[in-house]
Amino acid sequence: MSNALREVDLENSSGEASLTIRAEVAAQPDTVWSFLTEPALLLQWSPVVPDRDLTEIGPAFTEDPDDEALDATVISSTPPRSLSHKWGEGRLDWDVQDTLEGCLITLTQQLNDVEDAAQAAAGWHLCFDDLALALGSAAHPQALEPEAYWGSLVERYQKHFS
């Protein structure tokens, strides 16, 4: 698990809030693209899994037997660089760029409420930890129980945003 906070930005203008969070991973863009778009690979790190690959524009829904389906309609897709899709009422915009060590993933999430920013940042922080683990580019030492670790991240992101 990454102890340092991720690089994040929070914008709140005209009543619309968005969170941008970045993660570097030691994997090539084509590999990361597969982990962003294929349900079997998303299952390894994402909180929700779509009912189809997210490579084609059009309707998609999440599959979670314990929760109500979310709209995950693909708005745009430019493999292996950018993907925009709905996340329920909001939207997720993914950008993948080459780096010397692999690639940089930038995620921008529209937030319904700016007050949700720290929780969203902590959640994506953990997801990116799990993604790095799934890609084989990070170890997963666990000093705290997952809920305690998430809670500590929420507190740290709240301080960061204030």
From TrEMBL:
<dbReference type="InterPro" id="IPR023393">
    <property type="entry name" value="START-like_dom_sf"/>
</dbReference>
<dbReference type="Pfam" id="PF08327">
    <property type="entry name" value="AHSA1"/>
</dbReference>
<feature type="domain" description="Activator of Hsp90 ATPase homologue 1/2-like C-terminal">
    <location>
        <begin position="27"/>
        <end position="135"/>
    </location>
</feature>
<protein>
    <recommendedName>
        <fullName>Activator of Hsp90 ATPase homologue 1/2-like C-terminal domain-containing protein</fullName>
    </recommendedName>
</protein>
<dbReference type="InterPro" id="IPR013538">
    <property type="entry name" value="ASHA1/2-like_C"/>
</dbReference>
<comment type="similarity">
    <text>Belongs to the AHA1 family.</text>
</comment>
